[in-house]
């Protein structure tokens, strides 16, 4: 209607300048107006992030395998690209890269299993000796747990199991369902990895077309910068985790701690969570050394773990990472802690790659100029920056 004099949304921000003498405007300090404008925008962003987080939690059985598949693809794409640059057919390069990834995981699991089976007789003798020592300790004051009391506690546990057999069966059925979900997750990881390597660029191009035309170039640029950072982070973290595993595993073997190879495997997978993961995994090595080798070897093992973690935090990450993943160590610690509080183990694992990728995308989008690449980002150099 021609008589409608209501201000357009574009003009709301200029009303304060258009009506400087308005008593309502004059009564509100300028700082408060600016703070309020920032506040409602921040609240809108927080609400959107909370909604995304809630949706991811509800669909965690799909989201977690999907994210793992993306990270695995970030590890395997460089190998596939390398093979294709040496004139391998695309299908063969992708197949070889995928088989190499599967072979590494399966080989590591088989190695750990073989070492456990090999040292099992020795472990049984050590466990029996440890059990006798614990019985002697429990029988002393102030604990005073005699064999009769322990047998009585065991009888009580058996009676409780008999009276609660139905609930135990339900929990066992729930465990069976979780096994099924794990298998489903493995299939999702494989398919996401495979299709990210085959059609990753086309999938990303389709995603960018969902946004307004004027924003597509900037979003594409930011996405390619984030993908480059994710690849660098995955490569660096795998390398650092391997060094941690070899160092701590060798230290365990040198001082005679049993299961040195499984300890190295635990450290490797734990170190995939930067800084905190290797500390927690190293604590397992210290506990094993304490249980089977005594206080002296446990203290030596603790010294080895602390030394390796100091080298990781003060030498390896600053030297190897360089400017590829620009996240301060304090941000890593806080991110991992917050991720663990929100999403448990999965949250701790995905916190740092999410922070690093988001940081790279935000910086690239903020510094984007059409036709001018951001320094240090290969996003605009090649169409193969995405998977």
Account of the 3D structure:
With 387 residues, the protein is an all-alpha fold. It folds into two domains: 60-210, no CATH class; 212-380. 81% of the residues lie in helices and 0% in strands. Helix 6 runs antiparallel to helix 9 and helix 10 (213-254) runs antiparallel to helix 13. The longest helix has 46 residues, at 276-321. It is globular.
Please report the number of helical segments. 13
**Binned strand content:** under 5%
- Given as residue ranges, the uncertain stretches (5+ residues, pLDDT < 50) are 6-13, 374-387
Please outline the major beta sheet.
none
Order of helices and strands: HHHHHHHHHHHHH
Morphology: globular
As for the number of domains, it is 2
What's the end-to-end separation, in Å? 52 Å
- The mean pLDDT is 76
Helix/strand-derived category reads mainly alpha
Q: How many strand elements?
A: 0
How is this fold's topology laid out?
Elements: H1 9-12, H2 15-18, H3 23-26, H4 30-58, H5 60-85, H6 90-118, H7 120-139, H8 147-163, H9 165-208, H10 213-254, H11 260-270, H12 276-321, H13 329-366
Helix pairs in contact: 4-5, 5-6, 5-9, 5-10, 6-9, 10-11, 10-12, 10-13, 11-12
Features:
about 375 residues, mainly alpha, 13 helices, disordered C terminus
